[in-house]
Request: fold
Amino acid sequence: MSRLRLRELRLAAIFGVVQALMLAGAFWYVAVQAGAGRLTLGDLALYLNAVIQAESQLLFLPFTVGFFHKALLRLRPLFAFLDGATPAIALAPEGRGRAAPDAPRAGVELRGVGFRYPEGGGVVLDGVSATLPAGRVTAIVGINGAGKSTLVKLLTRMYDPDAGAILLDGVPLAEYDLASLRGRIAVVHQDFARFALTLGENIAVGAATPGRAGGRVTAAAHWAGADGVAAKLPHGYDTPLTRRFEGGVELSGGEWQKVALARGFARDAALVILDEPTAALDAEAEEALFARFRELVAGKTALLISHRFSTVRLADQILVLEGGRIVEAGSHAELVARGGCYAALYELQAGRYRQC
Ligand SMILES: Nc1ncnc2c1ncn2[C@@H]1O[C@H](COP(=O)(O)OP(=O)(O)OP(=O)(O)O)[C@@H](O)[C@H]1O
Ligand SMILES: [Mg+2]
Reply:
């Protein structure tokens, strides 16, 4: 920083000296002309005024140059970053990745998946093996911090597993073209984004081509129950969802969740992942959503993560994640009959308590 400041100072000093010399020259010229009686009083006033004005204009030049210099310093690394930014995951060679299947035949297989965050912390997943069969709804339950959302990040290739592999139709995820794969996955994240955009735009960003989402937006809003939110807004889907803009509104937590759900449904995906989709919904909204859920995920592979057993029990298959592994798997009825961890958690929420 001091080196940069010194350089600016040197530049400013050079400009200052040049400016001073020019001024001195101009004043000297005026003085000589006036001394020789070649200038009238009016000429003198005109010359002096011109010199003073030129000086005040020139005064800003070093500052402007310094400002541009600083701006350039900041822009250069930004553009270098944008040019060179590639995700820290294994990628198929440019243009050689496989296209993700339109409708997976087998589904997703997790094979001994192990993971710890590169940012630090302990092992989160430790040999997770499970199958998400195509066309079925799989639910994952587990206590806070069990690694459920981490699994979503691996499925969507935010990170690569450290051990084991995740396969889609028998092919490792890394062999698929990243954009093609992500284009076939719709995710409703637990910590979804609340964009300072209109309601319609907030939903359309979930579509494969947001600019041409059109009718998908209203259809998705209907699925997620966000059409009710639109109906009570002053400008419907064109209402900005932030108070920062004129005519904007602030939604409640549950209303935002409906928007996030609609965003997930705006994409025609093969794999639908819902991470805590109903945490903020009231009982009626949850009921309405799951009444339509089967129809919505018909023919798709769905993964549902929830702490609400009313939601979980709808799944074809339930996986219990504990200590970084899948400890139980089966349908709701099977797991309750088994009397293990799932049954204990279920009964706990149903109002009774038994040691897990
Ligand atoms: N970016 C990160 N860097 C380091 N550790 C992380 C990161 N994100 C999550 N973790 C850790 O990974 C573990 C699993 O987190 P994860 O979010 O997957 O849990 P979860 O099962 O989704 O929990 P919840 O039910 O609360 O949503 C936690 O112990 C958490 O502290
Ligand atoms: Mg989570």
Notes: The CA atoms of residues 253 and 280 lie 6 Å apart. The first strand starts at residue 107 and ends at 116.
